[in-house]
Amino acid sequence: MRAPVLVLALGLLAVACRPAPPPAQRDAGPPARCEDLKRRFVGLREGAPRVCATAADCTFYVAGVVDCGGVVDQATATRLASYGESIKALKCPGLLQCAPRAAVAVCREGRCREESPAPAPPPR
Fold first, then answer.
1. Cα–Cα–Cα angle for 114, 120, 122, rounded to 5 degrees
2. Regarding beta strands 58-60 and 104-108, do their DSSP bridges make them parallel or antiparallel, or are they unpaired?
3. pLDDT tens for residues 47-104?
4. Rounded CA gap, 86 and 68, in Å?
5. Cβ distance 93 to 28 under 8 Å?
6. CB atoms within 10 A of CB 57
7. CA–CA distance from 11 to each of 8, 51, 86 (Å)?
């Protein structure tokens, strides 16, 4: 009677000791939904007008969804943020961990652009 119990216990132990899948795989949203949202995100980002009158019209869009962000017009950034929130809430695979950006959003010749920040003046 001990042999069947031991075999059953070893079988359960083998199943219980399998490594858990990474959280992105275990909790990921439906692949088709994730791909659809990412495709819409990229399409919106690529079609962004990036038109501006002042630097206040420009901002960075959400980072970590399909790349580490960039500069677009405010209206597009708001729409991209909505897609980004949905993609992150679904825990879609492929999300990125991005380093902080050392750049500023500016308006140059009527277009939103990303530039390095102006260097600090030398100490006096």
1. 150
2. unpaired
3. 999 999 999 999 999 999 999 999 999 999 999 999 999 999 999 999 999 999 889 9
4. 17
5. yes
6. 17
7. 5, 63, 40
